[in-house]
Each structure stands twice: as C-alpha cells, then as structure tokens.
Design brief:
Layout (H helix, E strand, L loop, with lengths): L1 E2 L13 H9 L3 E8 L2 E8 L1 E3 L2 E7 L3 H5 L6 E13 L7 E11 L1 E3 L3 H15 L12 H5 L1 E7 L2 E7 L16 E4 L21 H9 L2
Parallel strand pairs: 1-10
Antiparallel strand pairs: 2-3, 2-6, 4-5, 5-9, 6-7, 6-11, 7-10, 8-9
Length: about 210
C-alpha cells in the first residue's frame, strides 16, 4: 500500500497502514466513485476487509459492479462522523471525523472458495459471527451474486478530534466546544411475519451490546 500526499489539512494526515485498517474496520459502508462514458458516478455499498483488499458484492446484473471491473482505477471513501465542533466564529466551526480515501482496481472473484470467503468477510464485518448463524442462500441466488475484490494500491487517512482551533484570539463570550457523536444500536425489532417469538441470536446480542 502506497500513501497519497495530503496537501490540504496535512496536519490531520494519519498515513500509516494501522490507521487505515482501523478506520476501515470501524465501519461497513463505503462510497465507490467510478467513471462511465466520461460521467463521474458514486454509489454507496457495504464492504469487508482482509489485508489490503476490500470485498464487495451485488447482483451479477448490477450496473456499478460491472463498471468497476473494466480495468479503470476507482476511488473508495469511508468516513466516520465523530462530532460537531462549535467555535466562537463560524469560520472556525468544524467537525471531528476519521476518514480514508482509497485508490485501486477491482476484479471479479471467480474462484468459488474465495467467493464464499468474500461473502463471509462482508457479512461478519457488518454483524460479527452472523455468517455461522444463518444459511447463505439458494444455489440460484448465489449464482446471481457477483463478488468483487478491490486492491488498495494507494490510500490516505485523515483524522480530526478535540475542540475548536483558530479562534483563540476571539473575545466574544459565547459557548464553544464540541459535541461528540456516535452510532448507537436501538432495541432490535423482531420480524413479525412469521408469527412466533424467537430469542435473538448471539451475534445480534453482541452487536447491540457493543453499540449501546
């Protein structure tokens, strides 16, 4: 993995492999930017990571999936919003965040063993250990599913945390500081269509406890 040089806000650069991995592993939703006939496009999707590779999946007829495997270099972004920073001026108001921007190429995973491995990585990145609790799907559903492997060739990471900066000389007496934010799991809602009460699986319990 190479690292992109960060020009704007270089003091927030955290260009090392460990930080990139931590930011990627803290989430499961990315935005993929690509080109189609000269038109820039961006679509959100789920992912899972292993080493310098991201796995994504979708329908074999999915427009984006078929475009990103045509040899072009694509860009993937992942951002976590950690807080709102309220300074004594609007100019110095900001947000706290962790973000990575990745560049590389993607290819279709044809090997069946790796295809299943990729699907497991994606699944367990969203809800850890869910893969072992439920069936994957029917044979026809699996045949209709495309798994793509993205190679992280270049990356950059930026992090901002803490309170306001740049307003140290302001004398207007108005509250300033920062408001931490986090994603929190609400109480799970049982699917009612089966008409029976079922205990939550261990993966769901663990996810809710981790994100309460």
């Amino acid at each position: 993995m190479e690292f992109n040089k960060i020009i704007r806000g270089s003091n927030r650069a955290s260009n090392d492999t460990k930080t990139v991995y931590e930011i990627l592993d803290a989430g499961f939703l990315c935005h993929i930017a690509f080109q189609h006939e000269g038109q820039c496009m961006m679509i959100p999707t789920g992912y899972g990571r292993i080493n310098d590779f991201l796995y994504i999946h979708g329908s074999s007829k999915n427009f984006m999936m078929n475009q990103i495997v045509n040899g072009q270099t694509i860009c993937i972004g992942v951002t976590h919003l950690d807080g709102i920073v309220l300074a004594r001026t609007l100019f110095d108001t900001s947000i706290n965040y962790r973000s990575v921007v990745l560049f590389g190429k993607a290819k279709v995973v044809d090997n069946e063993e790796e295809r299943m491995k990729g699907l497991r990585i994606i699944t367990d990145n969203i809800i850890a250990n869910r893969w072992s609790e439920v069936p994957v799907g029917t044979e026809n559903q699996l045949k209709a599913t495309m798994v793509v492997k993205f190679n992280i060739e270049k990356a950059s990471a930026k992090i901002r945390n803490g309170g306001p900066q740049g307003d140290e000389d302001k004398t207007n007496e108005i509250w300033s500081g920062h408001i931490p934010l986090k994603i929190r799991a609400m109480d799970p809602i049982l699917d009612p269509k089966f008409g029976i009460e079922l205990e939550m699986t261990e993966s769901v319990k663990a996810f809710c406890k981790k994100n309460e």
